[in-house]
Specification:
The chain contains eleven helices and 16 strands. The chain is of the alpha+beta class. The protein has three domains: 137 residues, no CATH class; 119 residues, no CATH class; 115 residues, Sandwich (Jelly Rolls), CATH 2.60.120. A six-stranded mixed β-sheet has the order 1-5-6-4-3-2. Strands 7, 9, 11, 12, 13 and 15 form a six-stranded mixed β-sheet that branches. Strand 5 and strand 6 form a beta hairpin. Helix 5 packs across helix 8 and helix 8 crosses helix 9. The protein binds zinc ion. The site of zinc ion (ZN) has 7 residues, from helix 4 and helix 5.
């Protein structure tokens, strides 16, 4: 190697070092929980270490509970690293605190002590070399309310991407990790979250995703962020683009909901409001999706055919009409809403209340009340607009429905 080459190498090395900077990031979720409602006194236990492929935890939980938590964390990590397309780079170290009195003095920092009785905190520090950030995150979390899973999502994001993204995304996705149940995509957040979201005035999308929000600003804001992230990641109309938006946010390439769906904001707003209107434990966002590509024709004597799936919400009849217009519907095929009930074959009325054909009209003002349609009998539209159909059932129990009806709708001809 020539002297000149050596000098160039040394210069190169110095050049690299100039770009090395310490990064210290913090996520505090200390005030995201409503209140601690523990009524049992935790047992006195020693702090022990347990580990799995991707986690090292220090905890005063009983061994059985610690192993169960590790398994849960590993399963969640598999799911989120697949979702974001990035493996977890190194072990995530967690301090999981059941009762602070079990922890020797000085083993938890004052900052950690202040949060772990009612939430959690994830500290991340590392070095940045050009565009590459090498971060190490440490989780301090209460054992309560799924906090370890919530904080582990932050830790994974720091270690895999160097950031957790803007507050609405970071906390919304961490809450999804918190409530996640393997093999179940339905709404499964605690009842107090559902009750709050149903009974509170709704913020706009701009308010939920406000870039000036900071983490740890209260469980109510976390609830709205969760609702938005849950809706966007489970409704097939938005899920894939939402995942791409998320990877962009985590890669510091920026992005907003408005820019991700520039021509679909009306549709997205409508579906998000519809999701909130029907929010209950067990609701599945994918089953309430709307078909925006459907083209509706004016009702005429010529029947228009469509298929209606028993396991989904409103589906387009492909017919539109005027207020009071009389229509007639015929149905073939069969569907069931309950394995213990006889299937409805599209003739007359089903034996039970469930399984009937329901209609509603959608126009620029919104949705009409729903109404029952009996096959082979005339019915009239309650408003001008597009006719949508569904199988009558509770919104939270569509998943066990089976079958579909081939339906034809035509305008009734005056005799
Ligand atoms: Zn958080």
């Amino acid at each position: 190697m020539s002297l000149l080459q050596t000098i160039r190498q040394v210069r190169g090395a110095w050049h690299t070092i100039l770009f090395v900077a310490m990064v210290k990031l913090l996520c505090c979720a200390g005030c995201r929980l409503p209140e601690v409602r523990g009524d049992e006194t935790p047992a006195a236990r020693k702090v022990q270490q347990y580990q799995s492929a991707n986690f090292l935890i220090h905890t005063d939980l009983a061994e059985e509970d610690a192993q169960e938590l590790l398994e849960r964390l590993e399963n969640m990590l598999t799911l989120i690293s697949r979702y974001w397309g990035a493996p977890s780079r190194k072990k995530i170290v967690c301090y999981i605190v059941d009762d602070t009195s079990n922890w020797p003095a000085g083993s938890l920092s004052p900052e950690a002590l202040a949060t772990v009785s009612n939430g959690g905190i994830t500290n991340a520090a590392g070095v940045k070399r050009g565009r590459v950030t090498d971060m190490t995150a440490v989780v301090y979390a209460s054992t309560k309310f799924g906090t370890p899973q919530h904080e582990a999502v932050h830790a994974y994001c720091y270690q895999a991407f160097g950031t957790t993204g803007p507050t609405w995304y970071a906390e919304g996705m961490a809450e999804m990790g918190n409530y996640w149940v393997e093999g179940d995509e339905s709404v499964n957040c605690p009842d107090y979250v559902v009750e709050f979201l149903k009974s509170s005035p709704r913020p706009t999308l701009q308010q939920i995703t406000d870039p000036d929000h900071r983490t740890g600003d209260g469980w109510k804001n976390y609830a709205w962020r969760w609702a938005l992230c849950h809706f966007l990641s489970h409704n097939p109309n938005y899920a894939e683009r939402f995942r791409v938006l998320g990877v962009s946010l985590l890669s510091n390439r920026g992005g907003t909901i408005e820019r991700a769906w520039p021509s679909q904001m009306d549709e997205l707003e409508f579906e998000f409001q519809f999701f909130l209107d029907h929010l209950e434990t067990g609701l599945e966002a994918k089953r309430c999706r709307w078909d925006w590509k459907a083209r509706f024709r004016e009702a005429s004597s010529k029947a228009v055919r469509c298929k209606v799936d028993a396991a989904r919400g409103w589906q387009p009849s492909l017919i539109k009409g005027t207020e009071g217009q009389k229509l007639r519907l015929t149905a073939e095929g069969q569907w069931t809403t309950d394995v213990n009930e006889p299937p409805f074959s599209g003739r007359g009325s089903p034996v039970t209340g469930k399984g009937r054909i329901l209609g509603c009209v959608k126009n620029e003002k919104g949705l009409s009340d729903e109404f029952v349609i009996i096959p082979d009998r005339s019915f009239s539209l309650p408003a001008e607009g597009d006719l949508y159909l569904r199988c009558e059932d509770e919104w939270t129990s569509l998943n066990d429905n089976d079958g579909e009806l081939a339906i034809s709708v035509s305008a009734e001809i005056a005799e």
